[in-house]
TrEMBL record:
SUPFAM superfamilies cross-referenced by the UniProt entry: Hedgehog/DD-peptidase
Pfam families: Peptidase_M15 (PF01427)
CDD domains for this protein: D-Ala-D-Ala_dipeptidase_VanX (cd14817)
Cofactor binding summary note: Binds 1 zinc ion per subunit.
Gene: ddpX
Organism: Luteimonas viscosa
Catalytic activity: D-alanyl-D-alanine + H2O = 2 D-alanine
Protein name as catalogued: D-alanyl-D-alanine dipeptidase
Length: 263
């Protein structure tokens, strides 16, 4: 896994990232490292370091899913204002889905399996820069902004959404996690598709979004099960709090959080 000033590594003990400057030989470098609170990097600068704004998802091992499936359906909600923050999110300079290559290849295999059944995937989010996660956390901590409450978290206080519904250190930043749903498509060109009823919309922060919530109707439960089974066949594990959130089981698991913008 490439490491740069744009990345932080997971602590083996508790699963969260820590700031651990390992090279304090040069006082100037150490000072720069300590001052770079926003970078939160565990690795000191090296000759190959670059700023987050110069690196690309490709340079840290990720691939645009449309290189593998050019016509996959994607509605990258954080690249616009149609999301729970009500604004375009930091780091989403383009509406693209980047994933580590093995995760992207697994997703492409699943899409190929689904199409003959009249089904397709719709992707909402993939790799998420850490600056986006920080924006989510700032949004959740600001009780004055309630513009999206009715649509996204009607029954909960926004301050309670972190970390269960919105992670303060997200697996999305490691490049193997994806938010998505299933579409049923008519065999036309271009395909005419409709999202399956999952019981809640994407990013509806509420117990009803829990994958096994008891008060779903039969069709909604079957649709969630269909998505979960399909994803499991291709190595993706569901997060029980959110029916749309899946992580690809990579060996060894990725341990690097990235803050490279999507463009
Ligand atoms: C914010 C939502 N789409 C999501 O991905 N939630 C999980 C918990 C995360 O932020 O990693
Ligand atoms: Zn997610």
């Amino acid at each position: 896994m490439p490491i740069s000033a744009t990345t932080t590594k997971t602590s083996p003990s508790n699963g969260s990232a820590t700031v651990q400057p390992r090279d304090l030989r040069l006082a100037g470098i150490a000072l720069a490292t300590l001052l770079c609170v926003a970078c939160a990097s565990s690795t000191p600068p090296t000759a190959t370091d670059t700023t987050a704004d110069l690196a690309t998802p490709g340079s840290v091992g990720m691939v645009d899913i449309r290189e593998l499936v050019p016509d996959i359906d994607a509605d990258i909600r954080y690249a616009g204002d149609d999301n729970f923050t009500g604004t375009r999110v930091d780091g989403y300079d383009a509406a693209k889905c980047y994933l580590l290559r093995p995760a992207a290849e697994a997703l492409a295999r699943l899409e190929r399996e689904l199409r003959p059944q009249g089904l397709r995937l719709r992707i909402f989010d993939c790799y998420r820069p850490e600056r986006a996660v920080r924006q989510f956390v700032r949004w959740a901590a600001d009780p004055r902004d309630q513009r999206t409450k009715a649509a996204y978290y009607p029954a909960l206080e926004k301050g309670s959404l972190v970390p269960g519904y919105i992670a303060d250190r997200s697996g999305h930043s490691k490049g193997a996690t994806i938010d998505l749903t299933l579409l049923r498509c008519e065999d036309a060109s271009p395909a005419r598709c409709e999202a399956l009823d999952m019981g809640t919309p994407f990013d509806f922060f509420d117990p009803r979004a829990n994958t096994d919530h008891p008060h779903l109707d039969d069709a909604q439960r079957a649709n969630r099960t269909r998505l979960r089974d399909a994803m499991a066949r291709h190595g993706f594990e569901n997060y029980p709090m959110e029916w749309w959130h899946y992580t690809f089981r990579l060996q060894p698991p990725p341990d690097t959080f990235h803050d490279v913008p999507i463009r």
